[in-house]
Amino acid sequence: MLETYEGMSAAELETYATGKLAPELETYAGHKALADIKSTLFWYQQQGTVMRGEPVRSPEVDTIDTTSDPLRATIVDCVDSNGYDKVKKGSGKAAASPSGPRRHYVTSTAQRARTGEWKIYTSTIERDRTC
């Protein structure tokens, strides 16, 4: 399931860097995680911004519920976005970035389909919890 989370993260990075939805995103993300990425992309498009650089991630599986059907898991990631910045799409000039800590926890939930494939269903940035 960490491979799925990392795949979603890579597709999310591509989406925000290009200003276009990465084709493979729906392979890894579903439900609220996918909707949140799409709405963030829309906001960036409205602002005329894209993201440059890359956050540093360190995801770990926190829990796996083997009694549920489908199987469920929680992934916790400390994301350091110090090298990941919003820029104007046309010029590449810095755009206003949020103030405050640039290291946060991201908690995601994953489910395994009957076919055996994992998909990330939620992914929440905990802005009030730094790492």
Characterize the structure shown.
This protein has 131 residues and is α+β, with helices and mostly antiparallel strands. It contains three helices and six strands, in the order αααββββββ. A four-stranded antiparallel beta sheet has the order 2-3-5-6. A two-stranded antiparallel sheet has the order 1-4. A hairpin with a 5-residue loop joins strand 5 (103-112) and strand 6. It is globular. The mean pLDDT is 95.
**Within the largest sheet, what's the order of strands?**
2-3-5-6
Q: How many DSSP H or I helices? A: 3
Radius of gyration: 15 Å
Percentage of residues assigned to helices: 25-40%
Proportion in β-strands: 25-35%
Count of distinct strands: 6
| Mean pLDDT across every amino acid position | 95
Q: Based on Cα principal axes, name the global outline.
A: globular
Task: Give a quick rundown of the structure.
The protein has 131 residues and is an alpha+beta fold. The protein is built from 3 helices and 6 strands.
Brief descriptors of the model:
29% helix; 6 strands; alpha+beta; 3 helices; 131 residues; 4-stranded antiparallel β-sheet; single chain
Please render the helix and strand layout as text:
Layout: H1 2-18, H2 25-28, H3 31-47, E1 49-53, E2 59-65, E3 72-80, E4 84-88, E5 103-112, E6 118-126
Antiparallel strand pairs: 1-4, 2-3, 3-5, 5-6
